[in-house]
Specification:
CATH class of the largest domain: Alpha Beta
Helix content: 40-55%
Number of helices: 12
Strand content: 15-25%
Mean pLDDT: 93
Bound molecules: 3,4-dihydroxyphenylalanine
Distance between the termini: 96 Å
Largest sheet: 7 strands, mixed
Strand order of the largest sheet: 1-4-5-9-8-7-6
């Protein structure tokens, strides 16, 4: 054995001892890797030795290469062993940290519900759809034409007053009722028609029985022979099916610019069956909305021949219907979304 090789052997033994100590003393995978690179990486000690081979006499080269490679393999093996050791140690620590106590009570996921106002709306629409009414939705922002003009509400009508209407820029308003849906249908659809409109409406009003943002349900029926009797029958059907009771209804003469004649609809208080209670203020009756026969002027505005066609329309407050159905005495509870309230329905 040449002195060069003897020298190398000694050196490699020292390197192995050093490397083994270093690899076994580190406590995490990253540090372990850094140690490995120190010996086996591009600038590593063993790689340097390999490079030195080029300057040796040809006769020493094969053995030199063999010995360095052997040392490399040895260190690679030590590294791998230590690596798996550290990995499983890390895993055990992680499992320990994330230990799950299977005996703890679980947290129950709360299931959401359909809001009471949506429930009431869906039910009213379903009742009307059984007698041929199709659901129509209109835009919340309406032009003056749809919200007022076409409904025969002239420019000087009190309903346009600043106190009631939220005016937007230009010719637009937040719709103050769902009646504009009638106009959209009359413009677009073929006659005869039966439509039910619903959605949010806005008025500058706020107290125990008024909200600035509330909801309405609108019905419109147009055909060739329509009378107040059809209107009465339809409203009776709707009220009876909604309150699931055989309640009396009454029509009080009233005025709406878009209907002629017009009436307000009262229904016998479903809470006391008309005997008188707190909700109906001892009168036995509760007002639920307005209605009437479509004013021929409305037909004219949208180019429909009022000699041929007649119609009836009605508009109910959704919150009102929900308050009566569920005995809610403050309308402001609906938009608050207090879970204690919402959960009850
Ligand atoms: N639009 C009316 C309001 O908001 C309610 C109404 C009355 C609607 C009579 C109608 C109707 O369709 O015929 O006060």
């Amino acid at each position: 054995m040449s002195p060069v090789i003897q020298d190398l052997k000694k050196k490699l033994e020292e390197i192995k001892v050093q490397a083994r100590e270093a690899l076994e003393s580190v406590e995490d995978v990253q540090a372990l890797y850094d140690v490995k690179v120190g010996f086996l990486g591009k600038q590593g000690v063993l790689t340097q030795l390999m490079k030195e081979m080029g300057q040796l006499p040809v006769s020493d080269r094969p053995q030199w290469g063999l010995l360095v490679n052997e040392a490399k393999n040895f260190l690679e093996q030590v590294y791998q062993e230590r690596f798996s050791e550290l990995k499983s140690k890390e895993l055990m620590q992680k499992l320990q940290r994330e230990k799950i106590d299977m005996t703890l009570p679980g947290s129950v996921a709360r299931v959401g519900k359909i809001h009471v106002l949506s429930q009431v709306t869906e039910e009213l629409v379903a009742i009307l759809s059984r007698i041929g009414y199709a659901l129509r939705l209109g835009p919340i922002i309406e032009s003056d034409f749809y919200n007022f003009e076409a409904l025969n509400i002239p420019a000087d009508h009190p309903a346009r007053d600043m106190q009631d209407t939220f005016f937007l820029e230009g010719d637009y308003v937040l719709r103050t009722h769902t009646s504009p849906i009638q106009i959209h249908s009359l413009e677009k659809e073929k006659l005869p028609l039966r439509v039910v409109g619903t959605g949010a409406v806005f008025r500058c009003d706020h107290d125990i029985s008024h909200l600035p943002h509330f909801h309405q349900l609108e019905g419109l029926c147009v055909d060739e022979r329509i009378s107040m009797a059809d209107l009465k029958g339809t409203i009776r059907y709707l009220v009876e099916n909604f309150f699931k009771k055989n309640l009396m209804i009454r029509f009080r003469p009233s005025f709406f610019p878009f209907t002629e004649p017009s009436a307000e609809v009262d229904c016998q208080c479903p809470l006391c069956d008309g005997r008188g209670c707190q909700v109906c203020k001892s009168s036995g009756w509760i007002e639920i909305g307005g209605c009437g026969l479509v004013n021929p002027k409305v037909f004219s505005k949208v180019g429909i021949n009022f000699q041929k066609w007649q119609g009836f329309a009605f508009g109910f407050g959704i919150e009102r219907m929900a308050m009566i159905r569920h005995r809610v005495d403050d309308i402001r509870l609906f938009p608050e979304n207090d879970l204690r309230f919402v959960k009850q329905f």
